[in-house]
Design brief:
It is a single chain. The relative contact order is 0.18. It is globular, with a radius of gyration of 18 Å. The chain is an alpha/beta fold. It folds into two domains: about 160 residues, HAD superfamily/HAD-like (Rossmann fold, 3-Layer(aba) Sandwich); about 100 residues, Hypothetical Protein, Haloacid Dehalogenase-like Hydrolase, Chain: A, domain 2.
Length: about 270
């Protein structure tokens, strides 16, 4: 049976896809998504952000489906205020952070404990002020971390990336994976955590075939969900190997990528 617009679920990445460098959401995106939802479509966010850091976006957009947060570490339903799934780093996660900081003291490190971002060595705000908004993190030490973390963010200069990749491969930290989420940020995530895995679980929970899933993202942490989706989408400005996986290409984030996507879907399914 042919799909209709009302059969579709759009899952959108945030940074570099829905938002550009902390600027407001493009009006084209808001208008198009409101139109899409009014016609029966479902829309949600798939992001590396925490529950509370994602909430302001949910309040500005017509989100009517559970969201994937923490880069696949959790599924959260804002309509009922409940977690549908949650995965945390192994107990050794804090020790892995210590070892990384000892080897790369010049990097900035954030440890994420539920909705709290700890700037562990103070280097994030000092070194990466142009790409880091320090209004959502607090200064902290390793002793402030209680229980198992959701993830860790390592801000790293591109010239150190090859050395860092070789180091974590040599250490073979069990139970975690390291995923680049922009050219200067690598995230340490639970091994089984990815946007693709979380979306697969969510679609099964809701009994929706993946052919109805439209997933849009701009970087390598979006790879699994673009591969999973019936319609994988990225920007013309995305890395070439990511564009090779996508069925649709849309305009750059600054020009309203979600608006462009909805317009293409409307032309295809109406």
């Amino acid at each position: 049976m042919a799909l209709k617009l009302s059969d579709l679920v759009i899952m959108s990445d945030v940074d570099g896809t829905l938002l550009h460098s902390g600027k407001p959401i493009h009006p084209r995106n808001v208008q198009a998504l409101e139109r899409f939802v009014s016609k029966g479509g479902r829309f949600a966010i798939s992001t590396g952000r925490s529950r509370e850091f994602t909430r302001p976006l949910v309040e500005q957009l017509p989100v009517n489906f559970p969201c994937v947060i923490f880069n696949g570490g959790a599924i959260y339903d804002y309509s009922t205020e409940e977690y549908l799934m949650e995965i945390r780093l192994p107990e050794q996660g804090s020790q892995y952070i210590r070892e990384i900081m000892e080897r790369f003291p010049q990097c900035g490190v954030l440890a994420v404990d539920s909705d709290v971002y700890y700037d562990i060595n103070g280097a994030v705000a000092a070194l990466y002020r142009d790409v880091y908004r320090n209004d959502y993190a607090v200064k902290g030490t390793m002793s402030d971390l209680k229980g198992r973390l959701m993830k860790s963010l390592i801000f790293i200069h591109p010239e150190w990336k090859e050395e860092f990749t070789a180091f974590v491969a040599e250490q073979k930290f069990p139970g975690v994976r390291f995923v680049p989420t922009n050219p200067r940020l690598i995230e340490m995530l639970p091994e089984e955590s990815s946007k693709g895995n979380a979306l697969k679980q969510l679609m099964e929970m809701k009994n929706i075939d993946r052919s109805c899933l439209v997933a849009i993202g701009d970087y390598y942490n979006d790879k699994e969900m673009i591969e999973l989706a019936g319609i994988g989408v990225t920007m013309h400005t995305a890395p070439e190997d990511l564009k090779d996986l996508a069925e649709l290409l849309v305009c750059d984030c600054e020009e309203g990528a979600l608006g462009d996507l909805v317009e293409q879907l409307e032309a295809r399914y109406q």
